[in-house]
Amino acid sequence: MPYHEFECSKCIPERKKHAVVKGPGETLADALPLGYLNTIPGTISERGCAYCGAKHVIGTPMKDVIHMSHGPVGCTYDTWQTKRYISDNDNFQLKYTYATDMKEKHIVFGAEKLLKQNIIEAFKAFPNIKRMTLYQTCASALIGDDINAIADEVMEELPDVDIFVCNSPGFGGPSQSGGHHKINIAWINQKVGNVEPKITSDYVINYVGEYNIQGDQEVMVDYFKRMGIQVLSTFTGNGSYDDLRAMHRAHLNVLECARSAEYICNELRQRYGTPRLDIDGFGFEPLSASLRKVAMFFGIEERAEAIIAEETARWKPELDWYKERLKGKRVCLWPGGSKLWHWAHVIHAEMGVDVVSVYTKFGHQGDMEKGIARCEEGALAIDDPNELEGLEAMYNLKPDVIFTGKRPGEVAKKIRVPYLNAHAYHNGPYKGFEGWVRFARDIYNAIYSPIHKLAYLDISKDEIATDKGFETRQMLSDTNLSPEITASTDLRQYTGKFDSVSDLRSKTYSSFPPAQPKLSVV
């Protein structure tokens, strides 16, 4: 077995089976790390809990809802505003977060009275919002507060409101994925089938596992509308609480993120006979194939082909421009779950970059199987790495850029590796034909940015030079660039002059530790 043992984790021998290197000709049976297991004590995992998976990933994107956490304020604060789940409800769900703010005394004496008081106060503070999701945390679950009973009491006293209860304490699974399952099943058990929708098309779908990160959902819904398809509900990006109660009337469930939402699709198929079709909105070829599949289900293939032809003609030349300049650049693909395999092959095929490592914080074995199968030979695959393992991997692999979340991304910047936010994006949306070009542009900007090159200057011992220009000006002069470059300058004309950035980065890696010496000033 091609297990990879990190030097920093030799004191935790169990971690050896959580990382593998994809060797030549090896099958998934030879190169699959252990995954979706309880965190090994002492590894200081960065992955989220089941509560986070329920509230932060799936619940919060619902736009017309008060999202109330019954627990300490830190739980709701940690799951607030870290992803850009935008909505056409003036981003109500992003502006506010709610918690009962349990204290020690509530642990001793119970907090059901506190919960009811907070629910009523929240509805009074926002009289136009009549819907609420109520999330249980570890603290309220451990003391046995009956949040279902409290929700029923409030709905009886306030008949115009409706409350959804999600019993999703943090310990409810080994990672966020446990929370995904809980909220999926709770929603279909409690709410689906309670509202009858208005059907306006012969082709009706639920768009499932889509969270509208920086407008991803709007891009895809536009394609569906151009094909004459009614999107009954989106689970849950920019989704309306009552629309999601009508999911049972769709003709087809179109599933984007299988890791977070396949559970509700499978239940809808079993209970209501609704078929499930998995799609991929990232990349020209996967997106084209996805639009064709949806169109074939309804027998409207020509509508999909017209969209594909139009969008490809408009955006493919720009994608090719970036591909030519990104060929051979080394990428660590370190997202949360499904983007591991959504992106692994297509960024290599359509952007020319080489994926040298993949990892997932909360994915299942299936995510690793698909991710490893789609990345290049020699790639390092890691399940639930900690900060030290991530640093060691970057030192050894010397990537030009990593795609990951904010926490590991900030760690990468400390050792002068640029990163793109794989969870909330830098300048999204990334779905759709135009979005894929936007993603390529962000990769290009991260790798070739002259601003990032400033990180290689060690100014800790600089004297204040009163008779010379800024060191920045000198640095730009060294690369034969005009010091008048501004944020509005088209950097494409300077592409060839930035080739030295990768070389400089290689020298920088080999110099850690100690710190990189500063560039000399002439």
Automatic annotation (TrEMBL):
Its cofactor is [8Fe-7S] cluster. This is Nitrogenase protein alpha chain. Keywords: ATP-binding, Iron, Iron-sulfur, Metal-binding, Nitrogen fixation, Nucleotide-binding, Oxidoreductase. GO terms for molecular function: ATP binding; iron-sulfur cluster binding; metal ion binding; nitrogenase activity. Its EC number is 1.18.6.1. The keyword Protein biosynthesis does not apply. PROSITE patterns: NITROGENASE_1_1, NITROGENASE_1_2. PANTHER family: NITROGENASE MOLYBDENUM-IRON PROTEIN ALPHA CHAIN. It comes from the Bacteria. It is an enzyme of class 1 (oxidoreductase). CDD domains: Nitrogenase_VFe_alpha (cd01977). It catalyses: N2 + 8 reduced [2Fe-2S]-[ferredoxin] + 16 ATP + 16 H2O = H2 + 8 oxidized [2Fe-2S]-[ferredoxin] + 2 NH4(+) + 16 ADP + 16 phosphate + 6 H(+). Belongs to the NifD/NifK/NifE/NifN family. Residues 49-447 form the Nitrogenase/oxidoreductase component domain.
